[in-house]
Design a protein that fits this description.
Layout lengths: L13 H18 L8 H5 L3 H20 L23 H16 L14
């Protein structure tokens, strides 16, 4: 089923589309996948790719923590036990996204307004 809310079809700002393209190249390079505007949302929708991305970023976090005495309370590990083959709207997908968000909060990412965070 096509979900119009989850596409870049209506984006008119060329700068935003360029940023999405760069995000696709960066994430795709890390994950070993070919990502583009057409498949980005579908690729991250079940949360597994986000958790895999967190594993990659966690390596840099660990390097930073080992070389800085004042690293604070950064996460000790990336999300563990996430499901890779689950459906986009399954309970496992929601759990994957929640694991990623908890990890991101430990990195002190700012919380979005609650009305803007919808897990589809």
């Amino acid at each position: 089923k096509y979900d119009r809310r989850m596409s870049f079809d209506d984006v008119k700002d060329e700068r935003m589309l360029v940023m999405v393209d760069k995000l696709c190249v960066w994430m795709g390079g890390i994950l070993g996948e070919t990502l583009n505007r057409e498949n980005l949302i579908a690729s991250i929708r079940n949360g597994a790719a986000l958790c895999s991305l967190a594993e990659f970023v966690q390596e840099s976090v660990d390097d930073y923590k080992s070389s800085n005495d004042d690293a604070g309370d950064l996460p000790k590990s990336a999300p563990v036990g996430f499901s890779t083959g689950c459906g986009a709207r399954s309970m496992e997908a929601r759990q994957n996204v929640m694991k990623f968000l908890e990890w991101a909060r430990q990195l002190r990412f700012p919380n979005p307004p609650s009305s803007s965070l919808t897990i589809c």
